[in-house]
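Researcher: We plan to redesign the surface later, but first we want a full-length starting point. Tokens attached.
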């Protein structure tokens, strides 16, 4: 099988149900979701196989789910059963609670940073927020799986919680925003 097809040379790409311009909001939404997935892989590579075994397992599951989300977002017209579900969102909430319990109580806003792993996970967080914004725009214009929006919203919270847990495991304090007061009590 050849990797190149030449079918996109004129600025269009295939989606489930037809062809669209490569700068279509649908393509931007699933393309940004794919970016998140790539950066999750980068974050995993920074982790120790034993020390971060649970994190690696959870993040690997998320990679599969991000691929599912991209497939859901790529559906334009032709309806197939969506893969991202409310159960996946609920499970993310459980994971958020578990990782949040590992980090010290939060008192100030947190800046991206601390350990290498935490920094990589914060990149995942902000890219997830961008993907979420694009999905909101897409949903306003075209039909799509609403659970993907919810999933991405929770996923960015997950990346925040796991980034803080990674810092705690590394013995590295979070980088607090010092120009404001204590905002969490």
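Model: Full-length starting sequence:
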């Amino acid at each position: 099988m050849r990797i190149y097809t030449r079918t996109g040379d004129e600025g269009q790409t295939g989606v489930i149900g037809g062809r669209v311009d490569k700068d279509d909001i649908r393509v931007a939404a699933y393309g940004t979701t794919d970016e998140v997935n790539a950066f999750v892989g980068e974050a995993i590579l920074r982790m120790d196989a034993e020390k971060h075994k649970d994190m690696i397992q959870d993040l690997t599951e998320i990679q599969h789910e991000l691929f599912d989300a991209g497939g859901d977002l790529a559906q334009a017209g032709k309806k197939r059963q969506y893969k991202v579900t409310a159960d996946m969102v609920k499970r993310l909430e459980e994971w958020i609670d578990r990782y949040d319990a590992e980090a010290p109580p939060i008192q100030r806003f947190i800046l991206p940073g601390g350990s290498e792993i935490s920094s990589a996970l914060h990149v995942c967080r902000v890219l997830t927020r961008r993907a979420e914004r694009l999905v909101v725009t897409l949903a306003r214009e075209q039909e799509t799986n609403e659970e993907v929006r919810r999933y991405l919203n929770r996923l960015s919270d997950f990346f925040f919680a796991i980034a803080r847990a990674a810092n705690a495991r590394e013995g590295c304090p979070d980088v607090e925003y010092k120009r404001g007061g204590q905002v969490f009590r």
